[in-house]
Amino acid sequence: MRRTARLVLMALLMPVAALAGGRRARVHATLTRVPIHLDGLLDEPVWRQAGTIPNLTEQSPDPGAPNPYRTEVKVLVDQKHLYIGIICSDPDPSKIAIHTMERDGNLRGDDTVAVALDTFDDHRTGYVFRINAAGARQDGLISGPEDVSLDWDGIWDARTSRNAHGWTAEIVIPAETLRFHPGQDQWGLNIERTVARDRTVLHWQGTTLDSMFYDFKRDGLLTGVGGLKQGKGLSISPWGLVRSDADLTTGHSTVQGDGGLDVTYNLTPDLTGVLTLNTDFAETEVDTRQVNLTRFPLFFPEKRSFFLEGSSLFTFGSGLHHDFIPFFSRRIGLYEGHQVPIVGGVKVLGRAGRWNIGALDTVTGSSSVADGTNLFAGRVTYDVSDHLTVGTIVTDGDPDGIHSNALYGIDALWQTSTFRGNKNFSVGGWAARSAGDNPAGRHSGWGLKVDYPNDLWDLYFTFKDFGDGLDPALGFLPRPGTRWYQGGGAYQPRPHGGMFGWVRQFFFEAFATYVEDLSGHAESWRVFLTPFNIVTQSGDHAETNLAPQFERLDAPFEVAPGVVIPPGEYHFTRYRIQLESAPHRSWSIGNTVWLGDFYTGSLTQWETYATYTTPSGHLRIRLTAENDYGHLPQGDFIQRLWQAKVAWAFTPDIILSSYTQYDSESGNLGTNTRLRWTFRPGNDLFVVWNHGWEHIPGSPDRLSFQPVSNQLVVKLRWTFRE
């Protein structure tokens, strides 16, 4: 009872103290002229004189509560590098959770530390660098408290060391990896530590339950970085490869070599130019296959490194998600499922005062599916105040190389983390219009979102209007000619003790989506309800849902090969049961079952996964299976998607992984095996083997396959910096 009263009092006083003091906590990076040997030990004498954060504060589950996980942070700097050392005490080091050593692997369920850097101190954009206790690295670009792209790969390094008292981390971030104002002596900074087994989260700043780690409006200050030099700002990355392709059905095979070049140069201290020639993405992991039981195209995320660099600068509009993306970089170099050669491209990324700038221009070559053409996308935003940002976006070109297309848009976002004292709140709006060889109809769209994303109450409302002639050829818009109303909320209490002491948090949710055509007639609606959803103190998850919905079909819908649902109006209700074990254990399993009515019949969907990781994190195996059983008057169908991913890490810098996928609709089985050896950050050797099989035509055995394709690629990429 006393502890609860103390926590309530602290929660009430924290925003008052912040407003009264008005000062951000700070740590000063100590200048070092002694070389740092990156080994995770922090044993150089200079670490004892480093700028220090003596301890982090518990942010979750009990803000400000005492805990046994003392975390000391030390910061050093020289002319070319920022060094961060973190000492993580643990009363039982044998329970430190590690599940991967892969670069950009899934760190959910791992003991980790993370550094968030706001290098312009603009409280909006920045970088995140995260590592687990085995030294696995993950990095990303932050463009908002809830908007983080973890697909970006920066050049940096880290090492860890475990001991009888816990573990230590040593991180080095080269100045050339970051964009910042040279001479500016203060950056925004926050530090996070997660302890997986009891799901404790520690922060340096932003220690209320409503505080998001990526919210730079709640960060502290890092000083002493004014002496960092970006050098000439020139980075040259040549690459070369040898590729062997074989068509096993015809016996035809080829062997060819290729090469290209990426050049990065700081046009000004704040603006970076990037040039790519003869761009190739042979090392990129294949897309994850998906089962599509809707009548709309699926979304596949961007994975190619050239387009991921600076991708957060092109983020447009509030509340759009995948319903409308004005600039979708996968439209470049990919057309109707086929690769299109990229002759070259140039990007300009960065800031100029209060302006944020992102521009991309590429030239594609001719192929069997598209003519060569020039494609452009540009995005500019202006920080009107600490809370308000306005922006614009322009795209020009059509990937088919034949038609003309352009899109223009404007948007604005006002957001704060001090609403009603210390709550998160934002309001945003956007408008866009396309031009060129567009379909007939209205070529414009607009929308707005009001968002209150907090721990106890999470509420939002979104409106989106897409004209029937709105055609973003370089974007993604699966449902033009529609008007959307979305809203709802979640009540998320955290019981403390009593009969529900084993529950960390409840989630009672109700979300609704209503979509109509431009004449005001309903096309579809769905209500998603959650009468029961809990996460236990150990991280296990159990949830039940029901989702009544409506669909209007104006044309026949082939939901599966040979199964065609006739036009009409359909009401049906789906039910879900989901169970997942906590991710910090060596074995993690989960199962989701959707069942109930589906158009004219019924549909049962089983999605199951199992993950096993050795305690060291060297071996990780994940098996997933989706089996969908449809029973309709128009015919029965079964859709299967099976996936297996195995990764063996010799070290965090030498990873061998294999990703195998089978789906029953195509009848194809494929495997993508990759060896990535990072000699040092920025210098990599890739060996990639792709092999494909297809179902033998006419065979009654669904698992009878014949090999159809084989590809082997060896690619070497090197980076030189000045």
Topology of this protein?
Layout: H1 2-21, E1 26-28, E2 30-31, E3 51-53, E4 57-60, E5 71-77, E6 81-89, E7 112-118, E8 126-132, E9 137-144, E10 147-149, E11 157-163, E12 166-174, E13 186-195, E14 200-203, E15 220-223, E16 234-247, E17 252-266, E18 271-279, H2 305-308, E19 334-335, E20 338-339, E21 342-352, E22 355-364, E23 373-383, E24 388-396, E25 405-419, E26 423-436, E27 444-453, E28 457-466, E29 482-491, E30 503-506, E31 508-517, E32 522-536, E33 541-553, E34 557-560, E35 563-565, E36 568-580, E37 587-598, E38 601-613, E39 619-632, E40 635-651, E41 654-663, E42 668-680, E43 683-695, E44 705-717, E45 720-721
Parallel strand pairs: 1-15, 2-5
Antiparallel strand pairs: 3-5, 4-14, 5-6, 6-12, 7-8, 7-13, 8-9, 9-10, 11-12, 13-14, 13-15, 16-17, 16-44, 16-45, 17-18, 18-21, 19-20, 21-22, 22-23, 23-24, 24-25, 25-26, 26-27, 27-28, 28-29, 29-31, 30-32, 31-32, 32-33, 33-36, 34-35, 36-37, 37-38, 38-39, 39-40, 40-41, 41-42, 42-43, 43-44
Task: Quickly list its features.
disordered N terminus, single chain, 55% strand, 722 residues, nine-stranded mixed beta sheet, 24-stranded antiparallel barrel, Immunoglobulin-like, 2 helices, mainly beta
